[in-house]
Amino acid sequence: MGQPPKNRKPAANQKRKLRNLMTAADYAVYEPPNKDQLQIARVYVNYGVESGVELNGVLKRLANRRNLPTVAGDLVYTDGNVVEGILPRGKVLARYADEGGIRLIASNLTQVGLVISASKPTTHVGLIDRYLTFCRIADIPLFLVVNKIDELEPGFVEGLKPFVDAGVDLYLTSATTDKGLKALARRLERGITVLSGLSGVGKSTLINALLEEEIPTQEVSGATGRGRHTTTAAEAYEFGKTLLIDSPGIKKFGFIGVGREEVLKGFPEFEPYLGHCHFDNCEHTIEEGCAVRAAVEAGEIDERRWESYTELLDNLNQSE
Prior knowledge:
The chain is of the alpha/beta class. It has three domains: 21-86, CATH 2.40.50.140; 98-246, 3-Layer(aba) Sandwich (Rossmann fold), CATH 3.40.50.300; 256-319, Probable gtpase engc, domain 3 (Ribonucleotide Reductase Protein R1, domain 1, Orthogonal Bundle). It is built from seven helices and 13 strands. The strands form three sheets. A six-stranded mixed sheet has the order 10-9-8-11-13-12, with helices on both faces. Strands 1-2-3-5-4 form a five-stranded mixed barrel. Strand 12 and strand 13 (242-246) form a beta hairpin.
């Protein structure tokens, strides 16, 4: 069995100073004093100092008062010309930005679809672990879309079995052959959905196929095997009676400021063994008498998932 990092400080000594990412739902929410005299409208896209807002069946470009950082899915207060405030947000997808601080991606979500490629760009399974952990903490259903299955490599889908066992629904699609699109469309009808993932996995191409929209797309770089960023801001599209949100490609999905118990939410296959360790404060990493580690050694828990858990926990502790 692989070994977890050994330079972790004891959890009991951690001083959590960093802002919990879950509080991003409250970031920049502003309800103006005259809100009762204003209309409520939905944001489809943020242009920086302006927002693309659906108002009375028409998409209008309105200026943002107070430089309010709206995101796709937001409900806002407006007088018909200016976005005057943002209503308290429901469930959000958010991450820590590379330049620091919190970056909201989309809000008022029903579910998150993580799109990965069956070929290039290669998706590290640790990225899936991070999305699953975030979504479990935020109580947002996560499903996985394996795109480009016309380029499927042997054993790829079988390697995702631990996530299926953890309760993640799996959809196999090809935007070029239309395979799997009907099943995916039925899933998207459940409510406001954001599609997220690395650049180049085909999020915009999938939406083109689903909506017959011409969203700009680019090929994966032959030199690096990585996708090139096309979507610059999350943008919502009408999908039946709900919304489908296309989001910018990411390089990594980081979040910090959560406790060990919250991280465990992303690994539901550990649950039958929790409470059976020798030590009450067991972190399920290097401790003797750990029931989770025993289950890994017995093949009852996927070893790679356990290793990902230890890496994630170590990264969180070191960040703090």
